[in-house]
Amino acid sequence: MTETRILNVTQGIWIDEESLHKAGLGPRLQMEMKPGEIRIQAASKTVEDLPPSEKGWQVFKSLGNHAVSGRLENAAEEHDRYLYGKNP
Is 53 among the domain residues? Predict the structure, then answer.
């Protein structure tokens, strides 16, 4: 069953829990915005659903994926130059 409501927006829109429940939506939502349209749907399970520490480990483990082979000379002393391209 489709239900349509006309809303007059003054400061924002509030969607009550009963309306979300009727639509079959849970507590995690995904909002997609396009010109003239906002679509709200259930959020899919992604990396964002992982606990923060697990997500952090995944990012940390991926840091070496694009590393250049070899060895940097004086890495400790030249840290800023290697990472940020800055000379002392």
Answer: yes
**Three-state helix/strand/coil letters over the chain:** CCCCCCCCCCCCCCCCHHHHHHCCCCCCEEEEEECCEEEEEECCCCHHHCCHHHHHHHHHHHHHHHCCCCCCCCCCCCHHHHHHCCCC
Look at residue 32 and tell me if it is in a domain.
Answer: no
**Boundaries of domain holding 51:** 47-84
- The whole-number pLDDT of residue 37 equals 92
Reported as a single tens digit per residue, the pLDDT across 17-28 is 998 999 989 888
Residues in the chain: 88
| 19-25 long-range Cβ contacts below 8 angstroms, 24+ apart | none
- What are residue 79's phi and psi, to 5 degrees? -50, -55
* Average pLDDT, integer, range 8-19: 88
pLDDT of residue 47: 53
